Amino acid sequence: METINDIVFGEMSYNHGWVNRKKFKFWGKIIEFKIKVVTYEENMILDSQRKDYQYFEANLEDISNGTYDAVKQYIEDYWDEYIKPDLPHRVNKDVNELVKPKTIIFDEGNVFGILCDCLWDEHGIAIQVLPEIEIGPQDVLL
Prior knowledge:
Largest sheet: 8 strands, mixed
Number of helices: 3
Strand content: 35-45%
Order of helices and strands: EEEEHHHEEEE
Helix content: 25-40%
Distance between the termini: 23 Å
Oligomer: single chain
Mean pLDDT: 94
Shape: elongated
């Protein structure tokens, strides 16, 4: 497996994009994320992806709070119609119980976001962070 030591991302291995794992305080708890940098031509990490990652680290608390609030609103908006019918009884609207952030994806073109597992959809949801916070199916990012 090919590995690199990127000046911003650190040590990464190639697996359909450059990948490593890092822990961050997010949504009030420590989460180990898979960090994935999507690459196309020549498998090169772009400066724009490095800048997006630096933006993520520098604004982690604001991103954590903003995405938590957006997911909470998303759950509220779609609770009765889409979410509640697919959940076991007695599950409440607790974001941390319903949604588990797993992977942060840095794509080309100043787009990055977070892939999450969720209890109501076997495919999970995505939280696009840049260019603006948007919640939806994972194809928002993939």
